[in-house]
Amino acid sequence: MSVTTGTRTERLASDAPVKTEFFLASEIKAHGGVTLADSLRLIPSARFESNCSNCGLNEIQLLGLSTDYTAILFDGAPLYSGLAKVYGADLFPTIFIDRIEIVKGSSSVLYGPEAVAGVVNLITTMPTHNHTSALLSYSNLKNDADEWKFTFKSSWLDRSEKLALTVYGLWENRDGLDLTTDGFTELPEFENKVVGLQFHYRPDEDKLLKASYQYIDQSHRGGDRLDLPEEQARVAESLAHKIHMINLQWEQQLTPALSYSLRGSYLRLQRDAFYGARADAEFGAFDEAGGFADPDNPTPAEEAALDVFAADPANQSAIDAVAHRIWSDTRNQVVFLDAQVTQKLGAHELVYGAQYRYEKLKEHRPNDPAIADTTDDFATYGFFAQDIWTIRPGLELVPGVRVDRHDNVGGAIFSPRVALRYQPRNALTLRASYSAGFNAPGAYNEDLHIGVSSGGAIFLRNSPDLEEERSDSFTLGADWLVPSLGKRLMLSSTVHYTFLHDTFDIDDSDVNGTGIWERVNGPDARVFVWENGFQWMVVPGLRLEGSISYIRARFDDPIFRVTGLTTREFVKRPEWTGKFSVTYDCGAGWQFVSLLNYTGSMLAVGEEADIHRRTPKFWEFDLNLSKTFRLSTHMDLKIGVGVRNLFDDRQDDLFDNGEDRDPTYFYGPVRPRTLFATAGIEF
Questions:
Q1: Helix-, strand-, coil-residue percentages of the chain, each rounded to 5
Q2: Which of 59, 238, 331, 400 is positioned for an S-S bond with 67, CB 3.0–4.6 A?
Q3: What is the pLDDT of residues 443-479, one digit of tens each?
Q4: Closest Cα partner for 277 from 208, 326, 328?
Q5: How many helices (H) and strands (E) does the chain have?
Q6: Cα–Cα distance, 378 to 447 (Å, whole number)
């Protein structure tokens, strides 16, 4: 299998100097995956963690680091903006891809900011034949919420095989789910509609034009009283995204030793958001009615009068009007340009090029003219060079360097990398690398919401003194194809050690009582990860895969979290994680797929509730059984049933305390036991 992400050149995965893991679309589909969040469940040491029980705010954890440190690419382009990535793992579909490639460890030398923990690259390829598929699935969550998904993909190839067109779509609809009895959701109601087009034109063997367009129309809402307008709920967190993405790419092989590629991408995102608590609107309306002498220091008599005011039907329209001002309209645009030249000179394969990225964000409060618009924009100019030097067969050295200029960082940023691949025997491959990376302050939603409780919304902004994060990453690993088993069993072990400098942290002191927290530079940190895994094709049709990872993430200096907890430990970073999957093609069209995900104990913190705990361990066990029926020579029908999180293993201390709960005190597996059935057709 050929991969491209590790060095931006096409290499066999087994021969790539920088280790590149991959999952084919067929593997993702076998496990019922249709989104990026579904696919992450398959990646060793990767995790998908939800951080808000109201709105479903989530993060991708790779090598123990959060989404902010991972670059999500679409055919090599870092197209997804910081704002789009806030809920992106749930938004972005994978039905249109050929495979997902993952490179762990800093890749800033090739892909710029954010690629500190690594990159996740969604790869598409030109269709080789006409093909159409559609899949309908129904899921029931804890006998209390329904979820429907429908996907389709159709590819057409002309007779000359020079022109191909693919159209695809996704529709998802899920009810909100209250896992306690207080009427407030732990999983928000969710709807997602995606449509996309891909165009490939290959005039001859040496040229390829690729163009794509994707539109996402997604909305979700959590809190209570989902049948009422957001303004009338006790707590409501509601978001609607409309995302347009366009990508254009040209590749040409000028000579056997010289090729180049040009790429241009554009993203436009509009987000309508409501983060509000009814108690906050009641307080504001009462204050505007003259109820407080000093709203910062209300008296007991004024607080009692506030309760009477809030309960009076005559005041509800005034309270609604205050709540209505909370709506925000955020616009985000990203332009990305990329040029690359690949040149072979004897034992050297040179890769060099330039990148430009511009991002702009503007947030507007259409119903509250008293609040000024929030605007931010920045540009990054990057130049990179890399040499893949084949010293002799089985021994390669890959030095590289990148120079960036970023509007939010003074001076040039140098990011070197060197990688070594050594194959002492055909069955054994050793790899080692060092790489530097950086993560710059950007337009990542200057007023990003943290959470909403009865005390009102909390917002986050960048400190004016915020500086870029820097990283130094070291990787050492080995892959061994066991000869005695006909090389059907591969064992792997890899160590990653990352030093983070001037880490981003959150100052929640809020000394002025404004409800605004600041992102500031915190202490340095060190993250050690040890991954061990195997892939075993036992017999044709039976494939076993497993991994276990140890992650230790610590700051150099202790950080105060909540009362009684000052610690160097990263929050919600389990030290042990593991995965084990079985894929068995039983014959006669039957297929059995299972996946076991293990999440070790971790530190969980509720800053609003001022609580913390050491969580229990979690075992998520998924089963899927399907049968394919041959309807005709070119048409198959596939029916499947299964269960996710069979043992319903999840957080056991969700507090049944309504609007006073801390929505950020949320950890571990998000989905309860879920039964599902699928029906798909291919021709």
A1: 10, 60, 30
A2: 59
A3: 554 344 444 444 445 566 777 777 888 999 999 999 9
A4: 326
A5: 7, 37
A6: 16
